[in-house]
Every structure is written in structure tokens, then in C-alpha cells.
Amino acid sequence: MKLEDLAGLRFTYDEVGCTQYDETPEGFHRLEYRQRIGDGDEVFQRAADALLTWRMHRAAGIPVTATATPPQVGTDSLGRLGPGMLIRRLRTQTQLGLPVPCRVVRVVNEPDRIGFAYGTLEGHPEAGEESFLVTRDQDGVYAAIRAYSRPATWYTHPAGPITRKAQHYAATRYAAALRRLAT
User: Where is the DUF1990 domain (predicted)?
Assistant: First the structure.
């Protein structure tokens, strides 16, 4: 699968835009992860830049390419999970790894909240949506990740609990990557 192949793909779920709401869509598992990454305007700006240039994903070990930077509604992205993550660390180009095709469904650009949400496309092992926000308040700057997901393939159905743990692990890596890139 290549980035240019994504344009014709459909979402794998009907609840497009669901990460902006607090209610969990029926049949989905919910992930909420919020981690303080620092203080001040500079940390907020650097974290927002890392998120909107896809550097957060890459720094977390997910090689990703996208049709637009910064993301806009309709931007397609193609990440890779698995052996490609190890090979990426060796700084080589590869098509190895499980493709994770997504499309941006929402962009947030507010004075104290910046980020985006993307939804899964056909060929993704999960069905659902994930949002990535950098927020700031009087207590500091935070990485906030919210996801709604359910298995979409024969091999993710029996792996339910393992998949949810992997998703939580990915959220901790995203937040840690933002902290490193912003401070």
C-alpha cells in the first residue's frame, strides 16, 4: 500500500468525528490519555509544531507519510507498524510493516488547543478514530490523546485486550515524544 492508494479508500466506521464528543460510540473501546509535557508558551508552540509536522509520530517510532503538512481535513496519512519501526530507526526506507491508513477528519486551532483527529481507512487493522491535542492551561502544557476503536480484521478480533494495551502504549510514546521535542 502506498500513500497515493489512499484517496479512493473509505472510512471503516460510521461515527466519523466521534473523538470530539465525550460519549463512546456503541461497540467501541475508549482510550483517554493526558500527560503533562511542560510549561509555557515556547513548550506549547514547539509541541504544536511537532504534532502538526508529523514529527511526534516519527519520534514515537511510527514512520508516517502524509498528503499535507500541517494536516487539513481530508489529509491522508500512511503509517507502518511492526518491523518498519525497527528499520526506520536504522534510517533506511522500507515498505515493511503493517500499513495503517488514516484520513484527517478534524483540525483544532484554538489559542490553547491545537491538534487534529484522524479516522481509519480500509486496510487498517482497527476501525475508529484517534485525536491528538496539545493543550495549555494554568497548570501547564499537556498532550491529550483520545481514541475510539474496535477490531477490523480477522487477526485483531482475538487480540482485543492486547490491542488495547498496545494502543495505550502508543499513547504514552506519543506523549513522551512530544515532551522530548518540546522541551
Answer: 12-176
Angle, vertex CA 47, rays to CA 74 and CA 105, nearest 5: 15
Q: Is 14 exposed, middle or buried (0-12, 13-18, 19+ CB in 10 A)?
A: exposed
Joined grid coordinates for residue 156:
485483531
Q: pTM of the prediction?
A: 0.89
Residue 65: partners with Cβ closer than 8 Å, 6 or more residues away: 3, 77, 78
Paired with 106 in beta bridges are: 117
19 in Cβ contact with 131 (< 8 Å): yes
Residue of 102, 100, 113 whose CA lies nearest to 20: 113
Q: What is the DSSP letter of 98?
A: E
**What fold is seen in the domain 30-182?**
Alpha-D-Glucose-1,6-Bisphosphate; Chain A, domain 4 (3.30.530)
